[in-house]
Specification:
The complex is a heterodimer of chains A (about 170) and B (about 325). Chain A has four helices and eight strands. Chain A has about 170 residues and is α+β, with helices and mostly antiparallel strands. Chain A has two domains: about 80 residues, 2-Layer Sandwich (Alpha-Beta Plaits), CATH 3.30.70.260; about 80 residues, Alpha-Beta Plaits, CATH 3.30.70.2690. In chain A, the strands form two sheets. A four-stranded antiparallel sheet of chain A has the order 2-3-1-4, with helices on one face. The longest helix of chain A has 17 residues. Chain B has about 325 residues and is an alpha/beta fold. Chain B has two domains: about 170 residues, NAD(P)-binding Rossmann-like Domain (Rossmann fold, 3-Layer(aba) Sandwich), CATH 3.40.50.720; about 150 residues, Dihydrodipicolinate Reductase, domain 2, CATH 3.30.360. Chain B has 13 helices and 13 strands. In chain B, the strands form two sheets. A seven-stranded mixed sheet of chain B has the order 4-3-2-1-5-6-7, with helices on both faces. In chain B, strands 9-11-10-8-12-13 form a six-stranded mixed sheet. In chain B, strand 2 and strand 3 form a beta hairpin. In chain B, helix 6 runs parallel beside helix 11 and helix 8 packs across helix 9. Chains A and B meet through strand 5, strand 7 and strand 8 of A and helix 12, strand 10 and strand 11 of B.
Chain lengths: ~170, ~325
């Protein structure tokens, strides 16, 4: 998941390094750092916005605990979960090929899930259509989820229609 | 410029009408005086080195069903003899497409080139079966080879890429390249009528052929993708390299679901290194490829220009004549005319 935090650091040398160290130690991948020096607090502290990617919730908790232990004040914490979406259509015997199983298989992928599903049932014996929205933490996971869905669709003889811009 | 017409169906007749209509324009604007010295169809041929009267040729053919009925015409399989024997500068190869063997067009084109004649064709068959071979044969024989009309009908897909965008590296070509399927998808979207009903309507209107397999199964689009991959991306692709899905499983309900999410469904051909593909895709409403009716549209992804899209009529004898005539003028210019 992508995590965005704003923390306040004392305006003395070495503070930023102190704050970054636990993030990389617990496997966080820093994507951006923004010093907001112009928004110094009345006590003279500098807000710093950090965006980093981290694999799982437990690691994030460890990072946050380590930061607090070092006296870093965290003023904002937001998960940017579900930052990327993709839409796909499925055509075929969607119910008979166990839609629940299809969704569960997709949800098994960490950081991606089926967030919306619309069904148009065909006449009895005819094929149905489904629109699926996949929400994922990042581009890589959404593409992974789409290729998983393609494999499932191939196996279940469903026609999968993806966006022109996908992959 | 002496011209031979091989194939006198819809396209051959359409081109003839345009040559009549545009005679003075061609002379004044391009200094080009095309003289049709022979016409061939599957039943016979007619030759007149002084130039056939195209108005009379059209009239006679309409009545008798073959160019052989023109004064001095002969019946029989005469294509090879005419292509090789008649003194001409350009051979138009306009016979029907056969995507398995490329014939009879393939042999016609090879014989014309070996006889030192420039070739213009609309025929996808030879291009799909033997693009590289024909391309290098043309070079070896020192003749020009043009095939603008084979992809996109009137839409100058090949010319745009080869001439005006020549400074770019083409990263990807995507397109709606089949008017029949686009018509069917459009009607399903606007009318909510089932696929089979819309297909029948398209057949009655002459938009779809009696046997629509090549169109609706995506094979026609795949042929065009193969041609574009070979001619514009420098690949050595075969039809079998294209991953193909058609539109036969797409019903109005699926299009409705797509629309609710801001998309429509189009049959899209994709050509880039490592991926040749044809299949239905979700296209955002308002996207340059979200064209309706029988229109064709192509988007090039380029290193310098980024994205260029063109759209226009992909079929019809008059529209396709735009490309066929453009090729003739282009050869005329290339040769310093």
């Amino acid at each position: 998941m992508l995590v965005r935090i704003v923390m306040e650091l004392e305006d003395v040398p070495g503070q930023l390094l102190k704050a970054l160290e636990p993030i990389s130690r617990f496997g966080g991948n820093i994507q951006s750092i923004m010093h907001q020096r112009e928004r110094k607090t009345p006590l003279g502290r500098v807000p710093v916005m950090l965006v980093f990617e981290v694999g799982e919730r437990a690691r994030l908790n460890r990072i946050l605990a380590a930061l607090r232990a070092r006296g870093v004040r965290i003023t904002q914490l937001g998960e940017r979960e579900g930052a990327v979406r993709a839409t796909a259509l499925l055509i075929g015997h969607i119910i008979h090929t166990d839609i629940r199983d299809t969704i569960e298989r997709l949800n098994a992928l960490k950081g991606a899930r089926v967030s919306d599903l619309s069904l148009a049932m065909g006449e009895p014996g005819q094929e149905s259509a489904a629109r699926m929205t996949i929400t994922a933490d990042d581009e890589r996971r959404v593409n992974l989820a789409l290729s998983n869905l393609q494999r499932i669709a191939d196996r279940k003889k469903l026609l999968m229609i993806t966006s022109l811009e996908a992959g | 410029m002496r011209v031979v017409l091989v194939g006198f169906g819809n396209l051959g007749r359409g081109l003839s009408r345009v040559l009549i209509q545009k005679a003075s324009f061609l002379r004044k604007s391009h200094g080009l005086i095309p003289r049709v010295v022979a016409a061939v169809d599957e039943f016979g041929a007619v030759v007149d080195e002084k130039g056939l009267n195209l108005t009379r040729l059209l009239k006679v053919t309409k009545k008798a069903g073959t160019v052989a009925a023109y004064k001095g015409g002969k019946r029989g399989k005469l294509a090879h003899r005419v292509i090789e024997g008649v003194g001409a500068d350009v051979v138009y190869e306009l016979t029907p497409t056969n995507i398995k063997t490329g014939e009879p067009g393939l042999t016609h084109i090879k014989r014309a080139m070996r006889a030192g004649k420039h070739v213009i064709t609309s025929n996808k068959g030879p291009l799909v079966v033997a693009f590289r071979e024909l391309d290098s044969l043309a070079r070896r024989c020192g003749v020009e080879f043009r095939y603008s009309a084979s992809v996109g009908g009137a839409v100058p897909v090949v010319g745009l890429a080869k001439e005006l965008l020549a400074g770019n590296e083409i990263r990807e070509i995507r397109g709606v390249l089949n008017g029949t399927t686009n018509y069917i998808l459009t009607r399903m979207s606007t009318e909510g009528a089932p696929f089979e009903v819309v297909l029948r309507e398209a057949q009655e209107l002459g938009v779809a052929e009696k046997d629509p397999t090549l169109d609706i199964e995506g094979i026609d689009t795949a042929c065009k993708i193969t041609i574009l991959a070979n001619s514009l991306l420098g690949m050595n692709a075969r039809l079998g390299d294209v991953k193909i899905a058609g539109i036969t499983r797409v019903q109005p309900e699926a299009i409705r679901l797509a629309r609710e999410a801001g998309h429509t469904i189009k049959l899209i051909g994709v050509a880039k290194h490592g991926l040749l593909e044809v299949g239905p895709k979700l296209v955002p409403l308002g996207h340059p490829l979200a064209v309706s009716g029988t229109l064709n549209a192509v988007t090039f992804e380029l290193d310098l220009a980024r994205e260029i899209s063109i759209t226009g009529f992909g079929a019809g004898p008059k529209e396709t004549s735009s490309s066929l005539l453009g090729d003739l003028i282009d050869i005329h210019r290339t040769l310093g005319g």
